[in-house]
Specification:
686 residues; alpha+beta; 5-stranded mixed β-sheet
Length: 686
Amino acid sequence: MMERALVRFLFLILAVAICGAASVFQPISDSHRSAALDVFVPVDGSYKSLKEAYEALKTLEILEIDKKSDLSSATCENVVKVLALSSSTLKDALYALSVNGILKCKSGEDVPKDIVSKLQTGVKDAKLLLDFYYSVRGLVLVKEQFSGTDISLGDAEAVFRSIKALSQSDGKWRYSPNNPESSTFAAGLAFETLAGVISLAPSEIDHSLIQTLKTGITKLFDSIQKYDDGTFYFDESEGPISTTASVIRGLKSFAASESTGLNLPGEKIVGLAKFFLGVGIPGDAKDFFNQIDALACLEDNRFSVPLILSLPSSVISLTKKEPLKVKVSTVLGSKAPALSVKLAQALSSGSKGSSVINNQELKFDAESATYFLESFPKNFDVGKYTFVFEILLDEWANEKAYITEAQTKVPIAATGAITIENAEIAVLDSDVGSVESQKKLDLTKDEAVSLSANHLQKLRLSFQLTTPIGHVFKPHQAFLKLKHESQVEHIFLVKTSGKKSELVLVFLGLVEKLYYLSGKYEIQLTIGDASMENSLLSNIGHIELDLPEHPEKAARPPLQPTDPYSRYVPKAEISHIFRVPEKLPAKQISLVFLGLIVLPFIGFLIGLTRLGVNIKSFPSSVGAATSALLFHGGIGAVLLLYVLFWVKLDLFTTLKALSLLGVFLLFVGHRTLSHLAAASNKLKSA
């Protein structure tokens, strides 16, 4: 459950990020068709189950991908086998009939009687919602696929009431009458099931039951969730894609079976379409099927078909003279009928000279089903705009309820080539402002201007930028860079005032910033803007500056690397020298020391012989002899443990082992000493 919750949470984050970023939702395109061939891959011409086969075939059919011939043989064998077996489950029978409806494995009057009998019995005995769903939907498919078959429910109203008893006051449904937990996903299954009951009923169902069901649908939509961009969806443990698709399938089936139709809010239907279009291309086969099938249901239903506004680009170039193209289509990208699409207004985000297009209707090209604006008004200039589109439905559209948002706002950036005029650079006298030297510039190409100045003079750079329709253009970026021959750089901002962009550098006030560095300075101008197609980086030339001597306390210029990429070259190899080993004693001295260590042990053995140690008193009985052997072995183990402690073991490990050996020695030593004491008493009494 935790893993499922985590996956669901991550999916919601992803869906929010996608839907929040997409202001214009594109309909299903060729990218989905190519992805479908990668997602629905059969094994040896078939799928693992008939449910997977149906989902794959249904998706490919909606996307108009013909793969029936590749899948018919093996898949039809499974279909015929399931329909011929009386032991098939209701679920297998439903999906076998679903696949048969696509591949036409069995048709005509060849009615699978055993399956029909099983489905009819399933309706009578059903208590759970899924049993009703499999049985009723299976009978509906039999009626659709086999001509001349009369499969009507004589007690259809009683079945309707039994299913309706599983509904809840909030519009959700229960899977079982014994389970109080309700589900939105189950609501979609219930709507499909009730639609099947209505279509199989020999007479009309009580109108009050139908009206109660419509009220429940309205309440279910009250619990729908929403993103900030107008995207709507249902969510539960099955996931938002599966849950929302289940509800849409149920609504389509119910609307098709009920003549009075459904009155659902149009903005929520468009929001549901936005949700499925905003999640991109799912990599999971189940989500892929639910996405495509739900969009197909939205495109082919009796309550409302959402229209999608599609733009080829969000950037308009005024220099290429390309018309603004807009495509209105249904969610699956099929051609839309000739509707009236009106460009209500386009508001500039800016400043002075903003323009407004008001109620300019787009022209329609029937061949490409595309609306286009041939030319922009004379006052339309470069910059950022918000285009507000309004789709106006003609009177004929009442034959099928097409819906769309009242207005669709699309941010668009208009770009163009900016004209650069009256560019010049001059050296001025600081006192009277007279021009000492002046050069005209062509900023569209590099110049080789050579100037000279001292700290009592000024440098002035000026130019004019105008848009394609003659308005003053203020760029986002306009910088002048002076680069000294020592690679020290200084950047100055060029400001726009009135019609002119101008920068005046007073060298007397810049001597400290220039670090009193006299010599040659390269001059470089940068002008850039998102709306400017001819942004530039121009090398103007150089200027020789004669500045005062560097004072002692003045700041020094920062050190500049000779090569800016030198920081990435391999560093010098570091060679580590270990400590020189200490001088060891000679080998002979070590051997003498070893002999001195062994001498106490030799003395111990000699002492034993002097004391007259013998084994005459060693017990002869099996039990006592065993205890004595274990006792002496334990003493040997303790001695060995001392050696290991000296060579290898640490104190804590040694103490743990010694405690275990101590307990063992206590037990066997007591047995051995008890035997010796008993033998001594017998000897004394004798």
